[in-house]
Amino acid sequence: MGSVAPTASGVVDLTAPEDDALRLVYLGSGGWIIEHGQDMVLTGPLFTNPSLVATGLARIRSDTVLVDEHMSRYDVSRARAILVGHAHYDHLMDVPRTAARHAPRARIVGGRTVANTLGTWSGLEGRVDLVDDSAGDQRHAGRWLRYGGVRVMALRSHHGPHFAGYALYRGTISEPLTREPELATDWVDGETYAFLIDFMTPEDSVAFRVFYQDAVAEPPFGLAPESLIAERRVDVAILVPSTFEEVPWHPEASIENLDPRRVLLGHWEDFFVPVTDPMRPSPLTDHAEFDRRLERVFRGAWWRPARWTEFRFDRE
C-alpha cells in the first residue's frame, strides 16, 4: 500500500488583503471549522481517538479533558451548526462535549440515528435538527436549513465498506438512548448524509459553496443535485480517501458531479493513535493510488492537511 504524508500544514493563504475569504481549519478525522465572515459551522470532531484494541475489546467514552484542550485552541462559540454525517463513534462521540462547552449555540444536524444515539443522556435533546425528510440527491434538490447567513442541505449518502466489502457497526437506533453507548459497536452508523454548505452574501446570493462528506459512498449516493451544481459549482469539496477502493468510481464521480475549484482531503489519517502522535495515513488504503486517480480527473489544487492546518480561500 502506498504511504503518504500531509501535503499542507500551518496556514495556506490564497487570498489578497482585500479578499472576502472562506476559512477552513482541519481538526483531524472528520472535524473541520468552516467559516465566512460571522458565520461558522463545525463538522463532528474526534480528539479522543481510542486505540484499535480498545474499540475491539473495551468500553470507550469521550475524553472530555482532551476535547476541552484541543477545542479551546479556537473560539467556536458562535458556530451555528455541527454537521454529523453518521453516528459512528469517530464522528459523534466527542460532539456532546463540543456542543455543551465550546459551541453552546450550535444545532446538531444529522439523521434520526444521530439524534437517538445522543438520546437523553447527552443533554442535547431539543438541539438536533433532523434531515431525513429534507435531504436531496443527485436528481432532486432537498430543502435548505438556514442558520444565520449560512444554509445547509443534507444529501442522501451511504457508508461504504471498511474492508473486503464489509462495513463495521451497521444499524439504526429507533428510540432515544437513555444511557451513553459503552462499546464501539453501540455507535452504529444509521442514516448517512453528505452536505452542501452555502455561505450567503447580504444580498442572499452564494458567496461560497462547500461540499462535505465524512464517509466514502458508492455513487450516486452522496452526490449533489445536478440542478444546483449547474447554477453554482462547488468552491471547496472535502472528500474522504480512506477505503476508497471499497466503492466504485471514487473520487471520479464526486469530481464530475461537483466540478470543484479546490479539493481538501479529510478523515485520511489513522485515528487509532493519540492526537499528540505524528499523523500517519490509514493503513487500510493505498493513498498514493487515490492521489493518482484524483489527479487524472481533477486539474485544480488539492491538499491532504495535517491537523490544525488553516486554509484561506478567495471567491471565484
Task: List the topology elements.
Layout: E1 11-13, E2 22-28, E3 31-36, E4 39-43, H1 52-57, H2 64-71, E5 81-83, H3 89-92, H4 95-102, E6 107-110, H5 112-118, E7 128-130, E8 145-147, E9 150-157, E10 192-200, E11 206-212, H6 226-231, E12 236-239, H7 252-258, E13 262-265, H8 287-297, E14 301-303, E15 310-313
Parallel strand pairs: 1-15, 4-5, 5-6, 6-7, 11-12, 12-13, 13-14
Antiparallel strand pairs: 2-3, 2-15, 3-4, 8-9, 9-10, 10-11
What does this structure look like?
The chain is of the alpha/beta class. The protein has a single domain, classed as Metallo-beta-lactamase, Chain A (4-Layer Sandwich). The chain has eight helices and 15 strands. The protein has helices spanning 52-57, 64-71, 89-92, 95-102, 112-118, 226-231, 252-258, 287-297; strands at residues 11-13, 22-28, 31-36, 39-43, 81-83, 107-110, 128-130, 145-147, 150-157, 192-200, 206-212, 236-239, 262-265, 301-303, 310-313. The strands form two sheets. It has an eight-stranded mixed beta sheet. α2 packs across α4. It is globular, with a radius of gyration of 18 Å.
